[in-house]
Write a structure and sequence with these properties.
The complex is a heterodimer of chains A (113) and B (114).
Chain A (H helix, E strand, L loop, with lengths): L2 E4 L4 E4 L4 E3 L1 E4 L5 E7 L5 E7 L5 E4 L2 E4 L9 E3 L8 E8 L8 E2 L3 E6 L1
Chain B lengths: L3 E4 L2 E4 L4 E8 L5 E8 L2 E10 L2 E5 L6 E7 L2 E7 L7 E8 L9 E2 L3 E5 L1
Parallel strand pairs in B: 2-11
Antiparallel strand pairs in B: 1-3, 3-8, 4-5, 4-9, 5-6, 7-8, 9-10, 9-11
The chains are: A mainly beta (113), B mainly beta (114).
């Protein structure tokens, strides 16, 4: 079945460090891919998305590229801030899925000053 | 402000109680969802409504009963829950329920069953 695997956390970085959170997927058909972020005590917010191969999603300095050949959608940011501390979820949806987002388990990021 | 509002934000209920979670979306969307987020499992889709009709029910126990009276409102009626039902319940909406549509989440309702 369809699934998303993302790196286990927690990830702890110093401010201004480079961030990579790995995400790979298994899906039948051609999924759309998403990164959501959940700040402490809040719901999920869409961070970025890509709907076809080679698309790059970007927002707030975060980027992820839809790589069909490696079935990956890794999240990157060149210089993290303390305010980026949150849990990050990779997700996919496939055609005909009636809006069913398949989520990874989430990766908790802590950024220290 | 995401455009999806959930109440209450926190709820504690006994196993014999009946309570309801409420969700309202101000985005003009046609599809609404209930998701469950618990500590031990990835986020799980519970119910999908498209144009006020239920289109998917992911084998959710009958002690959870959804209601969608119109395209802007969604309820989750709860009765005779178990302690393992304690979780964060997230409401969401999207323009429609097809692939690729961005799904917008509310801030969630924290449920504790005692």
């Amino acid at each position: 079945g369809d699934s998303v695997t993302q790196m286990e956390g927690p990830v702890t970085l110093s401010e201004e460090a480079f961030l990579t959170i790995n995400c790979t997927y298994t899906a039948t058909g051609y999924p759309s891919l998403f990164w959501y972020v959940q700040y402490p005590g809040e719901g999920l917010q869409l961070l970025l998305k890509a709907t076809k191969a080679d698309d790059k999603g970007s927002n707030k300095g975060f980027e992820a590229t839809y790589r069909k050949e490696t079935t990956s959608f890794h999240l990157e940011k060149g210089s993290v801030q303390v305010s980026d501390s949150a849990v990050y979820f990779c997700a996919l949806s496939v055609r005909g899925s009636q809006g069913n987002l398949i989520f990874g388990k989430g990766t908790k990021l802590s950024v220290k000053p | 402000e995401t455009g999806v509002t959930q109440t209450p934000r926190h709820l504690v209920m006994g196993m014999t109680n009946k309570k309801s979670l409420k969700c309202e979306q101000h985005l003009g969307h046609n599809a609404m969802y209930w998701y469950k987020q618990s500590a031990k499992k990835p986020l799980e889709l519970m119910f999908v409504y498209s144009l006020e009709e239920r289109v998917e029910n992911n084998s959710v126990p009958s002690r959870f009963s959804p209601e969608c009276p119109n395209s802007s409102h969604l309820f989750l009626h709860l009765h005779t829950l178990q302690p393992e039902d304690s979780a964060l319940y997230l409401c969401a909406s999207s323009q429609d329920s097809g692939n690729g549509n961005t799904i917008y989440f509310g801030e969630g309702s924290w449920l504790t069953v005692v």
